[in-house]
Amino acid sequence: MTTQPVTGTKTMVVSPHYLASAAGAEVLYKGGNAFDAAVAVSAALAVVYPHMTGLGGDAFWLTYSAGEGRVRAYNGSGRSGHGVRRDLYAGETEIPRRGVRSAITVPGMADSWAAVQGEYGRLPFAEVLEPAIGYASAGFPLSPDQHGGSVLAGAALSREAAAVYLPGGRPPAAGSGFVQPQLARTLRALASGGRDAFYKGGIAQDISDYMLAAGGYLTREDFAGHYGEWTEPVSTEYHGYSVYQAPPNSQGFAALMALNILERFDFSSIEHGSYEYYHLLAEALKLSFRDRDQVLTDPAFSPAPLDRLLDKGYAQQLASTISLHRAAAIGSEPVGRDTAYAAVIDGDGNAVSFIQSLYFEFGSGIVAGDTGILLQNRGSFFSLDPKHINTLEPHKRTFHTLMPAMACQGGKPAYLYGTQGGEGQPQTQTLLLTRMLHYGMNPQEAVAAPRFVWGRTWGEPTQELRVEQRAGRQVLDKLAGAGHLVREAAAYDGIMGHAHAIAVDSSGLRSGGTDPRCDGAAIGW
User: Fold this and answer.
1) Which CATH class is domain 231-336+408-524?
2) Model-level pTM?
């Protein structure tokens, strides 16, 4: 397993699928900038990684414009329909996780493409979507990860979805040609008609007609009323770096809280990969999750008290509660894990860190009519308890796991990083940044090194600390002895998610690392 990063002098693209990375590199070669390339990567992922992401899902973006010299966030997550209320689920304890009644939030992906590329891009929108359209219409070799996702979640697919993703009634083999003509038509309509083709035109009409006929709740008015938002990112200072995350409804602030706690400890005396390293990170993250779960939802309904949560004094209080010898008994909410993170930096220093998702593998399992669009089930994370902070209400954004990260030094991007993984996202991000910043690892080393993930994913209600076996028996045993519910994971276990990172050194070289646990590639020149 290589630990050498790909290094470019001008540009770098990282993503969980090599064809998506190639799409970004192609757009850069044609004269596009990082924003054009990022949207090209995002759109390509919607085609070649359809079990993880797509036009029926959401996206969050952190952008750095060299001309402006600032980091901005774009919230591309959708709200529940205006008519979606808790009483629609009367007698049920939770919103269904699959099916048309789980598809209750408007997809924000297409809006985010138009916003990011329209604000900063150089090329025509249609040209940026060309690689994705080509992959959908001419086909591509199906990835091992899509094959695995099809095996895992195939039974949850609707008849229309199964016709696309289980041709002949079975998961297609890895490496076989995979074509999506319906999705290609939809992408062409989006390329020619722009954002309005999706939210106010024929695409919205087709989706809403399907929802009405199938007993769903989203309407054409819900699509027409959708809007994403440019917002100020949340940030903290950590060892001379300004670390940025998307604000709520993203969980990104939890990673900033963990860094504020970890700032109180001396990493020069902590060996990387030791019991102390894994234990300390896990304990800091658990404390941030405890607060996150109490406050995170749509800030238009209930703003999170970020001034208090990101206060350095509060971090000191939390740090003082950590025992270096005993694991704390703290629970967290179960969250989904299937997501796609990518990042791009161009020769001018423009940078984009972004992440997108359908929530579960293949989202709701529903393909809307003849559009080829898999609808997300992100809204199934709403609570039906009226007293819960994240209770379901009309026209509301839910607690969102998506959280791209960017760390700047001297006002310029130094690290772009992120990962698939729901609950694992703040955890893996913290591993990546501490490895690169404190231990001098390059992005590929940081991504490939053994990882852990604590807590519950959507299918596994446990408080286990899953640690890859490469961490070593001595470390695993010592973690168990401290009270962690240790579960040994495979050497490069997919449960750890798919992480990617870009680092920019003092000379301007761009180094990229992609996860050996997925089908990704780093491409730079």
Assistant:
1) mainly alpha
2) 0.96
